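Changelog-adjacent note: as of this version, every example in the card shows the full chain rather than a window. The one below runs 223 residues end to end.
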Amino acid sequence: MTMTRRLSAICFAAMMLAVSGLQGQPLQLARVTLNDTALHTVPRYSWLFPIEKSFSLWRLPSVLSVSLTAGLVVRNQGVIYDRGADRLKHRIISAGPRISLPIVIADKVMIGVGYAFNYTLHYKEKRFPDRLRKNKQVEQSEWFSERVPPFQHSLYAEIGMARGVRVFGEYFLGNLYNTQYQDDNGQTPYAGLQVQMFNVGINFSFSQSAFAKKKTGVYYEED
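Full-length structure tokens:
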């Protein structure tokens, strides 16, 4: 890794720490089928950048608190799978709102559920003949591509300590590809191809957000 990439990684981690404690970056998994036949997949580790704010909805001190978290999430989401002798890597860059409902029990345990609405900005396809990295070919790189649906919807769940380690999972409700897409030759390269994506990861929370304070009669969250 070059010095520039190291500095970029450090700056990115610092921003994540300032915004949300430490947002864990997801391990991306997928189930890929071609005409109902399962293809071999490879887990993919990528990045997720949330800018979110929490607001206290209701609190019974030392017993239960309910908050609403809302904001914008920019993400790199994709899949790696083998088709014949080749390895394919397809990914999208998307952005959109995410809302979640964290519930803290006894100021110790946090359980949260949420929903994200993602708008696809950029799409890229890479092919690795014989599954070798040195053979990398970038086959498609498009802004606002019609090869994938314009919107991706996902459900989010998280559980762990109010201040500490939390495990999260996210499931995407639709297919990664637009199976009706036709290229310039009238071919449908994604016909019969189904990709169901889900993410898992770990978050670290060091903030006081689980413990709302009272100000002028209204509870608010302290970051």
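Structural remarks: Residues 9-21, 208-223 have pLDDT under 50 and may be disordered.
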